[in-house]
Amino acid sequence: MLRHGAAPALTLVTGGALVAGGIAWLTGATLLADVFWAVGTVAALGPALWWVVRELVHGHTGVDLIAVLALAGTLAVREYLAGALVGLMLATGRWLESAAERRASRDLRALLERVPRSARRREGEQVRVVPLDQVAPGDLLVIGPGEVVPVDGRVASATAVLDESALTGEPRQTELPRDERVRSGVLNAGGAFELLATATERDSTYAEIVRLAQQASATSAPVVRLADRYAAWFVPLTLAVAAAAWLASSSPVRGVAVLVVATPCPLLLAAPVAIVSGLARASRQGVVVRDGGALERLGHARTVVLDKTGTLTTGRPRVTDVVAAPGRPVPDVLRFAASLDQYSPHVLARALVDEAHHRGMELTRPVDVTEEPGRGATGTVDGHRVTVGKRDAEEALPTWARAAENRARLDNAAVVWLTLDGTLTGAVLLRDPLRADAPRTLRRLRAAGIERLLMLTGDRAEPAREVAAVLGLDGVYAEQTPAQKVAAVRAERERAVTIMTGDGVNDAPALAVADIGVAMGAHGSSASSEAADVVLTTDRVDRLAEAVTIAARARRIAVQSALGGMLMSTAAMAAAALGLLPPAPGALLQEGIDVTVILNALRALRPDRGTRTVVAPDTEDLLRRFAAEHAELREVLEAVRKAADLLSADPGPAALAAVHDAQTLLTERLLPHERAEERELYPALAAALGGTEATATMSRTHSEIERLAQRISTHLALADERAGPGQEAAPRPEQLDDLRACLYGLHAVLRLHFTQEEESYFSLAP
């Protein structure tokens, strides 16, 4: 308490004594000036002595010892001005250090101040204000303009405009349509909207962040003082130089001068200012770090172990393909399946409904719905008896269904089968996709000094190895139990300082045993967040790379400042030992060293321009627009693949009709999208990516897509020209090989191209 509470008062006393002595000296009252300066020196000596004794009681011998000796020495040799300068220097250093420590938790305290205490709950036609602990899942809440969303939920109105900057660090507004998920803690930046609560106050995102803030406030140690690590050799060196100067010159003043210029304010200030600047930078990027020690360890890490589901992948299955039986429209398959699954709690059912909503489908309310856990649901939709889920293993599959099953196995995808009035009608393939920002994250981690990247997952070996191959990981631990995860992390800790990143309850033990546990807090479990040293409050894994980069830079600047301050102090010590630097000028020089160290340490507040690609706000809007169009264009990819499959199975008029449908989608939707990217998006990206060369390969892919689409169009024209009067058009035998190659090739090129754009470009947008 003395260290923190007395620092401002001590600064005022020592500063006042120094100024008063200066005024007395200017008026010729030299004796009175010495009295004032001596008072300032004694005022600083008492607290400094207390700090040293307290450290000695705890078994630490820090660099504060030099300051005490310097203050006592100036009194002994009557160099009162030098003593007053050292006292002011020490007091201001302590004040800055305590201010830095308070700054470490300021962003967290800001979260606490925004905690809602009540909510407005709709009860019939009435809206009542109720305590927040009375809100339950299923309650309908009214969120007014400017209010903080109190619990997690889904938008129950047509739309909601939200400011998520308190959680994500990105000062941008997001417009969410009906049924989209909303996290507690975000601010309503638009008109009033209704929210369907999906969690209680205690289980919501914001409460989790608040608990983290309270833990940090209760358990946070002082910001790590790197200076004390150097005290083991710097203190003996200083004492030896001071003693040698005294003995060689027979003048105690020289010894005191050495102590004055060695006063360790550069060391006391360097680490706190740099480390806390790093904490502030991380907080603004949506990364909550518990304390300065965690940030230091984060910057020293050389191994990163990542969970797969929810960390490297989104943790939410997504529809990758919809397959329909011959003669059945693909949209009908998804519409019937999603309509039936609207009331199912299953994660795959949620993915079907979300995909249907994203495609703008009008879903029908099902009736007579029953659900068998592990098998699926059955009900009536639009007068048809519909079943969605697993199929009977003994059931003979038609050719199209076998092809869908084979594709699912090759893609490590789950299959949801649709039966309509007792007939197998379609299949929906779902996968947990890689996060678009995952590849960029791993590249940035390697650039930040991470030497070993591993994946740790309870999933099967096949999908785990596929993800590892795509991302270029150094190793994979698959099919791991929580106990095995702990053992694996311990083994990695034996090699190097290790970060473990995860989001689930089963990751909590491994997070706790790692040198630094990092939790994906936006969608992760509270158990993982409570076990972690670092929490990513936004649902982006690239914030992990941001945190490591910030931590490494802050630590580097802290060490650089501490060592630089010591080198400058050592040079001044040599000058003082030779009699070239009396105590008072030495104290002034030491103040200059302090200023230099502080200015250098404050560089940690500024972003490192070389590590993150920053795009302009207008370009971000373009990225989000084209990313949304990509999601809508998945229907085109499905149509191209379906046409190719039909052409392989039965190259007749029906197959040619499917090719015509695909070509229409290509002409009317896909090609205009590619041309707009070339015209609007790529020139806008050139400035951020360093020139047009960065998008040149993508432009070449656009040309190949257009070439293949034109080739398919030519094939269609040839088939139509050769159809006789009254005959249905069908591809000629000599066309089949090339037309199939064009369709399958176009499907492959489009999938790769979309993935590349999403990873390299769209992931740049917050």
Sheet with most strands: strand arrangement? 10-22-21-20-11-18-19
Helix content: 55-70%
The secondary-structure class comes to alpha+beta
Helix run count: 27
Strand-residue proportion:
5-15%
Largest sheet: 7 strands, mixed
Report on this model:
58% of the residues lie in helices and 14% in strands. The chain has 766 residues and is of the alpha+beta class. Helix 9 packs parallel to helix 22 and helix 10 runs parallel beside helix 22. The chain is elongated. The chain folds into five domains: 2-105 and 220-277 and 553-605, no CATH class; 115-208, Calcium-transporting ATPase, cytoplasmic transduction domain A (Distorted Sandwich), CATH 2.70.150.10; 287-314 and 435-537, HAD superfamily/HAD-like (Rossmann fold); 318-431, 3-Layer(aba) Sandwich (Calcium-transporting ATPase, cytoplasmic domain N), CATH 3.40.1110; 617-764, Four Helix Bundle (Hemerythrin (Met), subunit A) (Up-down Bundle), CATH 1.20.120. Residues 623-764 form the Hemerythrin-like domain. The chain crosses the membrane at residues 6-28, 35-53, 65-96, 230-249, 255-280, 562-581. This is ATPase P. Residues 115-214 form the P-type ATPase A domain.
